[in-house]
Amino acid sequence: MNGLSNHNSDTNMVHIILIPYMAQGHMIPMADMASLLASSGAVVTFITTPVNAARIRPIIDRIENSHLPVRFVQLPFPSAEAGLPAGCENVDLISSPGLHKPFMEALSIFGEQVKLYLTTKNPTTMPVDCIIFDSKNSWVGAVAESLGIPHIIFYGPSCFYILCSHLLKKYQVLKSIEDDYKLFKVPGLPEPVEVMKAHVMRLMDRPGWEKVSEEFYKTEKSACCVVMNTFEELEMSGLDKFRKEIMKEVWPIGPLSLSNKDLDSMAMRGKACSIDTRLLLSWLDSKAPNSVMFVSFGSLSRNPISQLVQIGQALESASSSQLSFIWVVKEAERSEEVENWLAEFEERTKGRGMVIRGWAPQAVILGHLAVGGFMTHCGWNSTLEAIAGGVVMATWPRFGDQFVNERLVVDVLRIGVAVGAKVPTLFVNEMSEKALVKGEEVRKVVEKVMQGGEEGDERRKRVRELAEKARKAMEEGGSSFENLKRIIQFAKGENKHLERGK
């Protein structure tokens, strides 16, 4: 209970519970949020499970060593009760598509553990003033309402994606579209873009997920207000439209990655790094500005070796003589075939390339002046880190919100180039030949992103302007800084009219 007992007698402190969704890309920004709230006058309890706590141990250690009033509570996860393998407590530990639904059912059962914890009389625990929960934890709404606790929904994806999903449901667009790969415009968007049904169809909107979907939308409506990991200056028109649509306060407090100021904090944003950060920085320091392409596809996506070979060929054959690269290849951890191929690839590209097997300090890499491009899956955390670092993106979405984020990056913000992926994938054994992108196409995009010219210079200029706005948003007096203060005010009961979503 690090740091909490010293604050229990302070009546000016508010107690906020954070309940993240159990996926690395959801837990990391919420841990950042915990630090920011604790630095702004709140006592924070971060509820997770033993396996997930172990997976973000570097973050927990850093926060506990800072002596901020944050407590990390580990409650048992009902894997066995839901028919999951032991230890399956995180989305990226799901080994087959058929386990997605049992995982969601386990989350609902986990809600009973959370309710028991919140109702247990403990003299060292402050009363709960507010719960902030990830939108995927739809079970929180019923728990919070049964205990009379105001609750705020946290959306991890971009506002652009959340608004698209809202408008598609509102106008029932998908019901009339039969072709999964036919382009259509999303009605009501401030910046009209074209998407495909295959790219916006959510898992919970599919047959068999009706109960999950019903609970999600019910909780969405019951939440008092909304917190988002974005910033006003990045998505101003979308945020304004979303506020009018849901008629609730929407508080963007990002980019949350910028809450990590020093090198160690940036490096420990996630799991333990698979490379020595200072060795990595020394290598980057030896490279010219904007000469390094960083390639990483997030914590969930995996490439079959056939796709890895194509990416490798693209990086190896890119025409710029100055082009260097850092490539995160998580697949090598579990595949001898991949490891054998990588060893030969590394030998051929010695000096030009660095391969990281496992977890990379992404925020550190993207913040270095040598990095001029980022090939990304368009997960929102990665997209925001690229924007905060002022780095142009080569976009290669895989699933979920990523295809819509690509449209924001490429069509609206105009700070990225699409690799050309069309078929959504999640598990390696689902990646068909149709989903593969040829090395020649990848090479062309790498060169387009890394080389200059009027178009390339304009992209780089735009993303650097956004990087500056992102930094200012998080500084004292900035838009995200002020929104964080509004959350504290709400928890103190200074915005009573917002409670229960009234």
UniProtKB/TrEMBL annotation:
Molecular-function annotations in GO: UDP-glucosyltransferase activity
Pfam family, any one: UDPGT
Coiled-coil ranges per UniProt: none
Keyword entries, A-Z: Transferase
Transmembrane segments: none
Family according to the record: Belongs to the UDP-glycosyltransferase family.
Protein name: UDP-glycosyltransferase 73C1
